[in-house]
Amino acid sequence: MIVDSAIYRKGRRAETPGDLSDALAQCRASSDDAFIWVGMSEPTAEEFDQVTSEFGLHPLAVEDSLKAHQRPKMEVYTGSLFTVVRPLTYDDARARIEASELMVFIGESFVVTVRHGSSRIPAQVRGRLEHDPKVLGRGPVAVLYALLDAVVDAYLDIASELQVDLEELEEKVFAPTGGAETGVAGVIYSFKRQVLEFRRATGPLSEPLARLVAGTVPYLSHETKPFFRVVADHLARANEAGDGLDRLLSDILAAHLTQVGVRQNDDMRKISAWAAMAAVPTLIAGIYGMNFVHMPELRQIWGYPAVLALMVTAVTYLYFLFKRRGWL
Amino acid sequence: MIVDSAIYRKGRRAETPGDLSDALAQCRASSDDAFIWVGMSEPTAEEFDQVTSEFGLHPLAVEDSLKAHQRPKMEVYTGSLFTVVRPLTYDDARARIEASELMVFIGESFVVTVRHGSSRIPAQVRGRLEHDPKVLGRGPVAVLYALLDAVVDAYLDIASELQVDLEELEEKVFAPTGGAETGVAGVIYSFKRQVLEFRRATGPLSEPLARLVAGTVPYLSHETKPFFRVVADHLARANEAGDGLDRLLSDILAAHLTQVGVRQNDDMRKISAWAAMAAVPTLIAGIYGMNFVHMPELRQIWGYPAVLALMVTAVTYLYFLFKRRGWL
Amino acid sequence: MIVDSAIYRKGRRAETPGDLSDALAQCRASSDDAFIWVGMSEPTAEEFDQVTSEFGLHPLAVEDSLKAHQRPKMEVYTGSLFTVVRPLTYDDARARIEASELMVFIGESFVVTVRHGSSRIPAQVRGRLEHDPKVLGRGPVAVLYALLDAVVDAYLDIASELQVDLEELEEKVFAPTGGAETGVAGVIYSFKRQVLEFRRATGPLSEPLARLVAGTVPYLSHETKPFFRVVADHLARANEAGDGLDRLLSDILAAHLTQVGVRQNDDMRKISAWAAMAAVPTLIAGIYGMNFVHMPELRQIWGYPAVLALMVTAVTYLYFLFKRRGWL
Amino acid sequence: MIVDSAIYRKGRRAETPGDLSDALAQCRASSDDAFIWVGMSEPTAEEFDQVTSEFGLHPLAVEDSLKAHQRPKMEVYTGSLFTVVRPLTYDDARARIEASELMVFIGESFVVTVRHGSSRIPAQVRGRLEHDPKVLGRGPVAVLYALLDAVVDAYLDIASELQVDLEELEEKVFAPTGGAETGVAGVIYSFKRQVLEFRRATGPLSEPLARLVAGTVPYLSHETKPFFRVVADHLARANEAGDGLDRLLSDILAAHLTQVGVRQNDDMRKISAWAAMAAVPTLIAGIYGMNFVHMPELRQIWGYPAVLALMVTAVTYLYFLFKRRGWL
Amino acid sequence: MIVDSAIYRKGRRAETPGDLSDALAQCRASSDDAFIWVGMSEPTAEEFDQVTSEFGLHPLAVEDSLKAHQRPKMEVYTGSLFTVVRPLTYDDARARIEASELMVFIGESFVVTVRHGSSRIPAQVRGRLEHDPKVLGRGPVAVLYALLDAVVDAYLDIASELQVDLEELEEKVFAPTGGAETGVAGVIYSFKRQVLEFRRATGPLSEPLARLVAGTVPYLSHETKPFFRVVADHLARANEAGDGLDRLLSDILAAHLTQVGVRQNDDMRKISAWAAMAAVPTLIAGIYGMNFVHMPELRQIWGYPAVLALMVTAVTYLYFLFKRRGWL
User: Fold this and answer.
1) Does C185 reach chain E within 8 Å, measured CB to CB?
2) Cα–chain-centroid distance for residue C311?
3) For chain E, percent of residues with pLDDT exceeding 70
4) Mutate which of E229, E247, E262, E288 to disrupt the D interface (most D C-beta within 10 Å)?
5) Domain final residue pick, E259, E280, E309
6) Domain match, C130 and C269 both
7) Do residues B13 and B81 share a domain?
8) Distance from D36 to chain B by nearest Cα, in Å?
9) Helix, strand, or coil here: E12?
10) Residues D95-107 pLDDT 10s
11) Of C227, C248, C252, the CB nearest to E60
12) Residue of chain E minimizing CA distance to C263
């Protein structure tokens, strides 16, 4: 489905193109840096066909654009530069990262963006650029820059959110009273999966950005390179954050395992202490439950209270002994 | 054993070659891009001998083709390009990856495919290509492309199936009631072995594909390079999936270990709570089982019911105490 | 906020510049290597604006300078060399590394330093350089050197402090009586986080320093290269220290986990030994508590003391048995 | 000690050389590709001296040849190419890899092989080559090839044997009834040591073989390169196998650890179930052992059998309860 | 402090230099490859000053030489080649590696060695070289070679000693009766620290040696290169040994952890078996301790011995049951 389609002249939105082929020829002929931007969402092969032929997109890139589940990458074809990125959104409630996909073709006087999934980045970026004619006036490459910038900035935001979640997890795991709940290992594992998803989006994007910074792809002007450098720099931070999260989660899992062991030992000591405090009076009671004829204590009037007192004393003594040793 | 053998002209199956030597000379002389495709399955040295000499295959590559257990690789010999790949199939019932082997020789006007194991890919690809004269018309390199494409697509399918299995495993491990069964560690380990087998097939194939994309091997035309780029891209996804599975399985094993510890602690607490609830009335019974002459309670008519009531009260109190602390 | 601003001539502090633009023109025209050094702290966009335009700083670098949370990096812009470093301080009491940020622009006859956070390094370095005209006389690049040197030396100091903390942790973990406290895993984890923070500052700085050593950035003179080599060397040591700490902390956590297991086993044995020592006399008492009419021992005058003696003997025997086996 | 020494002409064993110096001069002068092959076993410095001087071997290589414990490597000296490899044998009974060492000098018209340890590869290869004049006729480089081929093929055989051992270990560890024996961790560790020994032999050999394949060392002819490529390919498989074994052993150890935890929990539950089944009748017996004067049940003729029945019922109930919950 | 200082002519010790400056000029002028070797130990800045100025050492290298805690490295300065190595000694009794430091300047006709710590290598090497005029006659570079060779050979010796210690540790950990002592984890950790110290000395030295082998530093002659190749080879072995030790120690720690778990399970079973053997007769005694009026057994003359026999039978039965199941 074509979501939006417009001709931009001097960085300002002009008319909606009627026939793409005519519009393209006209843009290329014009002297005011005009270009067409076609935005599509999960197009069918039929919908895509026209765009493909008008703009001369490469069949392989078109095939990639029709199917989701592509890796982030950049490919140079005759007549167009094809880029795939994975915009991410973070569903805080479910602590789950959602990946969508965005394919961008830029060429002489045209941009085609194809979106798979629910990412609002193409629409947001178009809106923002339409209020910034200075940037938009630089042409298709500025659109690519703005899209990559928006996607990578979203990565940094998600990295921050994950960081906050990590801190909550840390508090939960290392709280003096907690840390041995059944679900914690599952939470950490699920967190690791999200981080893996995160890195799956950020990691492979490094190589395309390095090529944009190095300027080894077409359609770049000299003055746009520093902008891509900034994006590359942000991506490096996102990658670093993903890497750090991954390591810390491994560490937290290892620490949690140790804590479970310590907790178990603590519980075992506590349980044993109470068991000992029951065993001693039981033993005493057992002794005075023996049926010997000649047990002088049994006849004494003070026998019973004395034994009860002995029991209480023994239990009290054990209680403080264990208390002092930290078993209780 | 020669499974199938045919001459292709302009991308269409023509006659079955009689004498290979004559047919090859004729193909090379013809102006219609004709080529011979010989498909073999676990050939004996004798069966292979004729093909070898007619097509001028290198003895070392022939030796490799006769024995299975080769690594995926690509080697350039005078007169032919030799490629080894490991097609995989996934036996879902046994959760086991089966590897077969496929050797491909391409040269001027000929393709020889040698299959070890039960992979149906050579037959499927031949069938598919015979319905696609446009592709097949590009000659031997198109056959190589189609085979690699089919093999790598199968990798992606298997990666998806493994992903599904992983999710089932996750549910099993992190289910609130489960997760401490004896067999889980064995299942995870066996899964890791399958992933290793998977990576053993996908990993070493990167280098041959990189060479095909870079165009540093013979028999490639300029227009076939983008196609190999797509295959390389899919392989990169397969490799990434294998890598991700491997990490997640390590994480799942670590999480499972932690869970076993937590489960053990939970069980220990539950057991101890019940033990305490038995120990207290046992102690009380012991006390009133003592044989002191002067134990006034023993003579009271309400003594026995009172003690029973005390026991019930103590047990009830402990029950709620442990309940509140989450030990039961 | 502009913290300090001065013109330096022949390595000595001269007047405070009135108008930056005039001062810069004058410095560039002068023959005495004069340069302006403007030091700012968390400047607002407005405060920064003037500096930006006078010195011709690149808008992207300026944007980076206004926001904290940059990665250490070095970028070459027309007219200036932009460097970001992360000075660290170590709060020993809270065992926490605090990172601030320092951006340095050097260009022809000017230095601009921008500080985020509480690092006192820019002020200290300015003070030190003002007493060392020989170094300061080399111009802006000497300021960059001096700042990097101070930052990296602080890394080495922090590495030493972390080393000391590690040794304290080792003593705590491997003390014969200790090692199973609840908090240790949390302490190790928190230590790992600090080391990660440390490496986040030191790691990405390697690349800028390698470029300074290789001399592939502008504003370097041949004789300043060896100085950057020293800084790079110190940074390599800091990186190595961070790496070593990270590994040792992983090892310590693994060793701690093992120790928790050993400790638990020791405790279990000790508890069991005491339980056995209570169970045996309880059993004996149970036997003589049976109500058989014909139990000859019960009638003997020595029966009761003999059984008591038997109990004591059994317990004593068990005590020494367990002692000898190391269970007590 | 010189084990064997012969002159080979046209790939066939000719006379045993009398004086090495004369023989070498004669071989070099002859037109029939004659060369001398001297095979030594743990030579003393004296024994080696003559060979050294006659063949002009480099003192450093000679020093290396006299001492065992060299790393696999290849060094080019004036007049000779020096190669060190570590042939391995596998003692299946003791599950132990034995490493020996083999040094090979090749030069113009001579081969010197020096063996440390009990490897039979030099003798086997000489025997095999003497029956294969076609290969041997290619001269010294063919001997080097044949030796490397034999050594690397032995690596592959050992890798297969280790694979079989791994499968036995897997069965042992993951058997439903087993897996918690005391010795298993030790067996896995010892296996890892063998794999390390294996990799110590195979790993460093990659670099010499890469140089042989690239043809950057002297004494190679163009037609021998593909042969070394085969050896390099086999070595890559051996390296891959070693790597895979190493990972799987780490995984098996981790899985084993988890299983020990699961087993412990199972045992704990089983033990606790039986303990509960003893505690309940003990408590009942305790209650009816109390000495209250007014316990009406005690006087009933059905009291005793009723209580016994109660005990049996309680135990039976608990038994089935625990059975149903999987604790027994 | 200057430890030793001499002029060497034709590889033989000649006079002790009076004035360094004159001596140096004279050496340089002489035709007999004369050179001065000054050996210092922890020199003060003052002591070093004279050497610095006479030999034209670079101030940064001098600064490095005055402070210990340098990383192994090699730097080329105008007029001298500066090398830092970390000689190691192994204190077997305390199982601790001691690192000292050695700085070497070589230049035209001079060598300056600076030692920090107690390493006896400079003195030993000087002594050895003074008896080997052939080597010493090659001048300053021969001294550098001899020092590096001695340092690296000491690494190999230490690697052997660590290997022996590892084997002792293995025996201790995997002994059937041992392996669960409290201290073992601490011993393994401390061993890992030593290995880290070892690798800190050997690892960074690879790069300087690679440069010496490649011949990209001054003062090397063509014939000295093979010697440095030998040293580089030995260093590679030391690095490999360090790497192997590190891995094996990680493995041993993991195996030890598993063993602790197995041991704990074994102990738990044994304890439980004994507890069961006490619980059964206690239960029986409890039953016959009940006060029912109608318990016919109590009146039988054989009642008491029969119950005792029942108890003994039950315990004996359980004993053999547990024995057969391997719990005892």
Assistant:
1) no
2) 60
3) 98
4) E262
5) E259
6) no
7) yes
8) 28
9) strand
10) 899 999 999 999 9
11) C227
12) E182
User: Which pTM does this prediction carry?
Assistant: 0.85
| C146's tokens | 């001096």
The alpha carbon of residue A261 is apart from the nearest alpha carbon of chain B, in Å, by 7
- Asked if residue B319 and residue B233 are part of one domain, the reply reads no
What value does the mean pLDDT take over residues D144-148? 94
Pick the closest to residue A238 from A147, A145, A153, A149 (CA basis).
Answer: A153
Q: CB of D298 within 8 Å of any CB in chain E?
A: yes
Same domain, E168 and E277: no
The SS3 assignment for B9 reads strand
Q: Is C283 on the interface with E (CB under 8 A)?
A: yes
Choose the closest CB to A247 out of C196, C274, C290: C196
Subunits next to E (3 or more Cβ pairs <8 Å) are C, D
- The larger pLDDT score, comparing residue B215 to residue A181, is at B215
Residues of E in contact with C260 (CB under 8 A): none
The pLDDT tens digits of the residues spanning A211-236 come to 998 888 888 877 778 889 889 999 99
Greatest Cα pair distance, chain D, in angstroms, is 124
> Is the same domain home to C247 and C266?
no
Would you state the pLDDT for residue B129? 92
Chain mean position to CA A206 = 17
Q: Which residue range is the domain that position E289 belongs to?
A: 260-324
Sign of CA pseudo-dihedral E279, E280, E284, E287: positive
- pLDDT by residue (tens digit) across E189-232? 999 999 999 999 999 999 999 999 888 888 887 777 888 988 99
Residues of A in contact with B230 (CB under 8 A): 60, 63-64
Judging contacts by C-beta atoms under 8 Å, the chain C residues touching residue E271 are 268-269, 272, 276
CATH number at residue E122: 3.30.460.20
Residues of chain B with pLDDT under 70: 177-182
Is A288 in contact with B283 (Cβ distance < 8 A)? Answer: no
Query: Per-residue pLDDT tens for A49-92?
Result: 888 888 888 888 888 888 877 889 998 888 889 999 999 999 88
- Segment E246-276, tens digit of pLDDT: 999 999 988 888 888 888 888 888 888 888 8
| Distances, alpha carbon E267 to alpha carbons C327, D184, E274, in Å | 11, 17, 11
Task: With a cut of 80, say whether residue A98 has pLDDT above it.
Answer: yes
D281 and D141 in a single domain? The answer is no
Contact B291 A298 (CB under 8 A): yes
pLDDT surpassing 70 at residue A109: yes
Interchain CB contact of B276 with A (< 8 Å): yes
Contact D87, D155 (CB under 8 A): no
* Tokens at B315, concatenated: 């047990």
Q: What is the pLDDT of residues D67-83, one digit of tens each?
A: 877 889 998 888 899 99
Q: Is the pLDDT of residue D242 over 90?
A: yes
Q: Which chain A residue is nearest to residue C76, measuring alpha carbons?
A: A226
CA quadruple B309, B310, B315, B317: dihedral, nearest 10: 110
Domain count, chain E: 2
Hey, which chains touch A, using 3+ CB pairs under 8 Å? B, C
Q: What is the pLDDT of residue D84?
A: 93
Amino acid at E55: F
Q: Which of A232, A259, A286 is the endpoint of a domain? A: A259
Name subunits touching C (3+ CB pairs < 8 A).
Answer: A, E
Q: Which of B260, B280, B291, B307 to mutate to test the interface with D (most CBs of D within 10 A)?
A: B260
On whether both C166 and C275 belong to a single domain, the answer is no
Using alpha carbons only, how large is chain B's radius of gyration in Å? 35
Distance from CA of A34 to the nearest CA of B (A): 30
Q: Based on the domain organization, do E25 and E92 belong to the same domain?
A: yes
Report DSSP letters for D254-275, one per residue: HHHHHHHHHHHHHHHHHHHHHH
CATH of the domain at D285: 1.20.58.340
CA pair distance A230, A235, nearest whole angstrom: 9
| D-contacting residues in B 58-87 (Cβ below 8 Å) | 58, 60, 63-64, 69-71, 73, 75, 77
Residues D288/C289, Cβ–Cβ less than 8 Å = no
